[in-house]
Structure formats: C-alpha cells, structure tokens
Write a structure and sequence with these properties.
This protein has 642 residues and is mostly helical. The chain has 24 helices and two strands. Keywords: Membrane, Transmembrane, Transmembrane helix.
Length: 642
C-alpha cells in the first residue's frame, strides 16, 4: 500500500475508535436538563463511526494485513508494544460492531425516551462500543486483555442500568463475577504464552509453530476466558439473567459485543490451540449448544428464549472453531449479529407496545411471558414480518443468511469427522441443535404473533414509532442471503472466501441441510399448540443450584472459617501479644518507679537528711549548741564509763 493510503486507513480506524469514546464523554458532561441532546449527538456520532468503519473495511477487503504500533512499556525482558492490526477478521468485526451499535443507538432514542438515566445509559453504551472496537483491532494480548476487561465493566454498567430493581442489580453482579472466573484463566494463559514465546504480539506468535504441553495449557486457559465471556458451559447461566437490563442493551450484548468477544478471540488466536486443546473446545461447544437449545424449548419469557438461543448459537460457533474451521465460526458470528439484533429489537418493540397499552388500562400481566401474548400479527404487522424473517434466518431456512452460515458449520463438522465414534456424536449433536432451533423459534413466533391475544382483550396495541422500526428494517434486510453470498445455496461467497481461501463445498451437505430444516419445521408445526414443560430444563439443568450448593456455600463457609480464624486466632494471638507487652511494660514501669527510682530517692533523702542534720550545728542558735554539746558529753561519758 502507498503511504497516503496507509495514513487514510489509520485515520479511518482512529475515527471509528474515537467517536464512540467521544460520545461516551459528551453524554456525561451534558447537564440533566439538556439530556435530550444526548439522544441526538450519540446516535449521530455512532452513525459516522459506522460509515467510516464500513468504508475502510470494504475498501481494504482481501488486502494484506496492516499493523501500526508503538512502544508501550517494558515488562522484564519483554518489550510490550501497543497498536492495531487490520485483517479480514478485524474488518468484519468493525462492520458488525459499529453497524449494530449505531442501529441500537438510534433505536434507544425511542425505547429509552423519558428514562431518568438517559445520560448514563448513552455514556455506557458508547464506552461499551469503544471497548469492543479496541478489543477487535488490538494487535497484542496485553491490549486485548485491557479492552476485554473494559468490555466486562461496561456490560456490568448496562445490565445494571435500572439498579433500583434488585433483579437488575443482582444480574449485573452475577455477570461480572462469572466473567471474573473466566478472565482469571485468560490472564494465566496470556502469561504462559509470554513465558514460552517471550512476546505478546499476535503476528509474531502466529509465525512460531510449536505444540507442547505448555502451549496446550495456555490455550485451555485462554479458552476459560472464552467460556466466561461467551457464556459457555459451565458459566452459561449469567446470560439469561442479564435480560434484566434494557432490551437494546441485550441486542448489543448478544449480537455484536460481549459474547461475540469470546468467539472473536478464539478465531483470532486459533493458531495457538493444539489438537488436544481443540478437542476440549469441541466438547464444550457441542455440550453448550445442546443444553441451551433444550432450555430454550421450555422457556416462557420472550427475552430468555432469545438468550438461550444466543448461548446455543455461540456453542455452534465454538464447535466450528474446535473442528478446525474458525472461518465458519466467524461467518456465523457475522450473520448471527444481524438476525439476533433484529429479534431482540423486535422483542423490545413488542414489550414497549404492550406495556404502553397496558399502562392505559386497568389490567396488569407479565408482558414478556409469551403465554400472555398472541395474535400480535394484526396489531404489529411490521414487527411480525421482521420477526419472521430474522427467526427464519436463525432457524437456518433456505434463502436466509443463517442457512448459509449453519451450512458452513455443518460442512466443517462433517469434514472433521474421520471415523471416530465421538466425532460422529458431535455431528449428530449439531444436527439435533439445528432441529431444536427450528422448534423453539417456531414456538416463539406462534405464541407471540399467531392465534388470539391472551393478555387482555381491551388493550389497544400499536406499532412502535418509526425511530424504532427503522433499525429493525435494516437488520431485517441484513438477514437474507445476499449479505453473505450472491448464491442462496453456496456459503463460500465473497465473505467466507475472504476468510478461508480453501473453502470446502459439499453439495450433499447443502441438500441434507435444507431437507433437515424442512423436516424440523414440520416437527415444530406439530408441536405448535403443545406446552413443553421440564423444570430441569427450565432451570438450566439446575446449574445455579449446583453453584449455590457448592461454590456459593463453599465460599460462604470458607469466608466464615477465615473470619473466625482471623478474629479468634490471628486477632486473638495479636491481642494476647499486645496484652503481654502492656503487662510487661507496666511491670517494668512499676519496678522503675518504685524500686530503681525508690533506691535513688532514698539515698537522696538520706543525704539530704544528713546534710540538714549537720547543717543544724551551724545555724547560730545557742540553745542548739547547748543541746548538742550536752548530747555529746552524755555519749562521751557512756562511751568511756561503759
């Protein structure tokens, strides 16, 4: 590239990064009485950032990687440099993060209108976007980890935006604590890499190919970070609880930030993972995908169904990365971002409309419980169409983007199986998860939009305002196949070929995928009026109870034990030592005051008395002279006579 072009690229990257941060800062300095200004400036700045990011990504697509960095600090013998790395993976994330964030910002101006914490909300939203963008373009592990923690902190602020609600505050703390477990592993893995490779630079690490025990340990530790951030088994229960936050926040977390960070990390550093580590990744991804899909089938909360759906789809992405095709994982991350954001914003429109209508009546019911909804296709036809298209893409129906990305994952898993029994189990698991996805999405759409409204017949429900429908329309369009490939049946289009130049294509897999989805659709239709109930699945396999009975109670017992040890033994020992020291000091003080000082004072008193006695002989009083003379004579006589 020419120098001017490189400068232009760097300028565009800087603009895309700085505008969300500027939005966050401006949102804080605006006074509360002028909070409406934030609803204008924040979406505008994010829109400019999105246009800039799309421009630089499309303009440099398929061009060689670009890296810009400078010296940051010295860590022992390791010189840490801070910089950005621009390749096709980064370009995809720039498009996804900025586009979805800009649409969420615009949507939020309608959804969050009148909220008492509008400035705080848009500030956290902008900072969240900045942190995710920094994570995506960072060229070394140290900077990635720095941005990784900022993403976690931002999500804590947004999930707990309505902190006056105990559920929201608890959900924010749960998400933060669960991620700390994973982040601890990530930090250890990063340090192991620094020890073995003597660098944090990702480009430099990719040039060194070595597969030893230390590399496997480092890869598994890094995968712990992915487990926490992308809500994989066993740390998956924080994500459904995070639905206590505002719905636009849920859309951003599930589509373009937070959970996407873990998938992007495993794709970005896939070269570090040894075959042994990848086998572990496959198992965890497949298990998570199945568990979450089963749980989604029995949920009643509108947002929680979508939350478990996200966990399941993330499990499929992890599975794809584990079988050795991170490009398939990246492709599904790209398509999932748009149709999942569309679904969440559509859910937000439903909640917003029904709650608004409910507030005008005397009725009250849970507007997020799908059992209380139904028939909304008549009152909210636009939302119904958008939900249908995005849901079809999530279910993997032909002619939608989700069909192509799931086909890529299925092809990757199929090509990975080489006769091993457990490998075929992974393939079967992937097919089952695909079928369950169709079932719970069909069930969700049927309960919400078909039939008759089951909440309250007198409610007057209307579509959301245009400022909320506009972003949904854009995301709905992005859910069709053209965003991935010009061919509706071949996933190896312009996007996938830019990630994997040796894309394997199998026509049989395409046919099998299409037939399997249609079969799943027929099965889902047969279950449309049946209520699936399972307390075991509804409670996420009782994972929270397991954590409560083991980790929480164990931690509580350990904290009580350490408290008792500290108070009774450590503090008791210190207090005993202090008492002994004080007692000894008092004894020494008494001995000094009454014995040492007493003897000295006694001699002084005696000397003073003797001196006074002798001095009395010379005081000039005749009576005393006579008296002492008489005494002296008497003593002399006694001495001589006796």
């Amino acid at each position: 590239m020419e120098a001017m072009t490189q400068h232009t690229v760097l300028f565009c990257l800087g603009t895309s990064l700085s505008l969300p941060l500027l939005s966050a800062m401006l949102s804080l300095v605006v006074r509360e009485r002028y909070a409406w200004i934030v609803s204008v400036t924040s979406p505008f700045l994010m829109f400019v950032a999105a246009v800039t990011a799309v421009f630089v990504s499309v303009s440099t697509w398929n061009e060689p990687s670009l890296q810009f960095n400078c010296a940051w600090f010295q860590l022992g013998e390791i010189g840490v440099r801070a910089g950005v790395l621009l390749n096709n993976h980064t370009r995809i994330m720039l498009i996804v993060v900025t586009t979805v964030s800009a649409l969420v910002h615009i949507y939020s101006t309608g959804y969050m209108a009148g909220d008492h914490g509008l400035r705080k909300y848009f500030s956290a939203l902008g900072f969240f976007t900045f942190a995710m963008l920094l994570l995506c373009v960072a060229d070394n592990f140290m900077l990635i980890f720095f941005a990784w923690e900022l993403v976690g902190f931002s999500s804590y602020l947004l999930i707990g935006h309505w902190s006056e609600k105990p559920e929201a505050a608890a959900a924010a703390k749960k998400a933060f604590i669960f991620n700390r477990f994973g982040d601890a592993g990530f930090l250890i893995g990063m340090l192991l890499i620094a020890i073995s490779r003597n660098t944090f630079d990702i480009n430099a690490l990719s040039l060194v190919q070595s597969h030893n025990i230390l590399d496997t340990a480092a890869a598994l530790c890094i995968f712990c970070g992915v487990i926490g951030k992308s809500a994989q088994f066993p740390l998956l229960t924080w994500l459904p609880d995070a639905m206590e936050g505002p719905t636009p926040v849920s859309a951003l977390i599930h589509a373009a930030t937070m959970v996407a960070a873990g998938i992007f990390l495993i794709v970005r550093v896939h070269f570090i993972f040894t075959p042994e580590a990848l086998n572990v990744v496959v198992v965890f991804g497949a298990l998570t995908a199945l568990m979450a899909a089963l749980s989604a089938c029995v949920q009643h909360d509108l947002k929680k169904i979508l939350a478990y759906s996200t966990i399941s789809q993330l499990g499929l992405m992890v599975t794809a990365a584990g079988v050795g095709d991170p490009s398939a994982a990246m492709l599904h991350l790209f398509t999932h971002a748009f149709f999942k954001a569309c679904l969440f914003l559509g859910a937000g429109s439903i909640i917003h409309a029904v709650h608004h209508a409910q507030s005008k009546s005397l009725t009250h019911f849970d507007v997020q419980d799908v059992r209380n909804l139904g028939g909304l296709r008549r009152d909210m036809p636009f939302t119904a169409i958008a939900f249908l298209i995005a849901g079809a893409s999530l279910a993997g129906l032909p002619f939608f983007s989700g069909f192509l990305s799931k086909d890529a994952i299925l092809s990757a898993v199929f090509n990975w199986t080489n006769g091993g029994t457990w490998q075929y189990l992974i393939l079967i698991n992937t097919l089952i998860v695909s079928m369950l996805t169709v079932i719970y999405m069909f069930r969700l759409f049927w309960n919400v939009f078909m039939g008759e409204f089951r909440g309250a017949a007198e409610l007057d429900i209307h579509e959301a305002p245009m400022v909320m429908r506009g972003p949904i329309a854009v995301l709905m369009i992005c859910s069709i196949w053209l965003i991935v490939s010009f061919s509706p049946i071949h996933f190896d289009g312009w996007l996938y070929s830019g990630l994997n130049t040796t894309a394997p294509h199998n026509t049989i897999i395409v046919i099998v995928s299409a037939l399997w989805v249609l079969l799943s659709l027929l099965l889902a239709y047969s279950f449309r009026n049946k209520t699936l109930q399972s307390e075991f699945l509804f409670r996420s396999f009782y994972l929270d109870r397991v954590y409560s009975a083991t980790i929480i109670k164990g931690t509580s017992y350990l904290s009580q034990l350490t408290t008792k040890t500290d108070v009774r033994w450590i503090d008791g020992g210190i207090h005993l030592l202090a008492y002994v020291q004080v007692t000894v000091a008092n004894l020494i003080g008494w001995f000094d005051r009454f014995i040492v000082d007493g003897i000295v004072n006694l001699f002084a008193w005696l000397a003073n008395g003797i001196g006074a006695f002798i001095r009395s002989f010379q005081e000039g009083k005749i009576q005393l002279y006579v008296f002492w003379s008489s005494i002296a004579i008497v003593i002399f006589l006694i001495w001589t006579l006796f």
